[in-house]
Amino acid sequence: MEDDQDIQNLLVLILNLAGFNVQAEAAGNGGLLAAQKLTPSLITLDLGFPDQDGHDVAVQIRKLTQAPLVVITAFADSDAELASMPSGATAYLAKPFRAARLRELIDQLFSPQ
Questions:
Q1: CA-CA distances (angstroms) from residue 35 to 29, 45, 63, 106?
Q2: Among 28, 61, 87, 99, which residue has the least CB neighbours within 10 Å?
Q3: What does the DSSP assignment read for 30-75?
Q4: Which has the closest alpha carbon to 68: 102, 33, 95, 41?
Q5: pTM: predicted TM-score of the whole model, two decimal places
């Protein structure tokens, strides 16, 4: 879920290249509906949405799925990162981010342990 169209397009490209079938949403409510209807294997989540707080969205997502939840946000400080974890985040990536770093993170999340 990402409300910035350019970043959303980049995420779709990166995730498609990583083998994911992507459902992009620009708002928290749309993302929650998609998470409810689909069976996501990975969720990326911005924290700043026009319709609701991203932390609240993360909490609601955790009630729907245990899929890895990667918070990707411009709120790039340790307080924001720490606040994301109790909300259900699996990992945190600060904007601006490098496509290669997101791909590495995805590979880590889905590599056999």
A1: 10, 12, 10, 18
A2: 99
A3: HHHHHHHHS--S-EEE-SB-SSSBHHHHHHHHHHH--S-EEEEES-
A4: 41
A5: 0.86
